[in-house]
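Page 42, continued from yesterday. The earlier attempt failed because a stray header line got pasted into the input along with the sequence. Redoing it now with the clean sequence only.
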Amino acid sequence: MSCLAITFIGPKTKNGRRLFENFVEANKSSFWNRELVEAVDSVIYMGFMRPSTLFVSGPQIHLQAVRTAWARRVLKPAEGYSISSLGESFTV
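This time it went through. C-alpha cells are written below.
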C-alpha cells in the first residue's frame, strides 16, 4: 500500500490527527465531486511530520482521486492552511 505526503502551509501544529480530521472534513463538503468525497472518507491517517506534513494511505483508486483533485486545484486544505505540495511517500 502506498502513501501520500500532503504538506500544508499555516500555523504550526503539534496535533497531526486534528490536522488530518480537518482536512477530511473540508473535502467531505465537495458533494459535486463524489470520487473525492469517497476518497477522503477512506484514506487512513498514517502519520505526521512537523511542521505540517501529513502521511495518508488508502486504496490506490482513492489515492489517485486525491492526486487528481490536487492537479485540478479542487482539493481543499484544512481550515487555516493551504496545501503547498502533494506527492508519493513510499512505505518501508
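Notes: Residues 3-89 form a domain with the Alpha-Beta Plaits fold (CATH 3.30.70).
Reminder to self: strip header lines before submitting.
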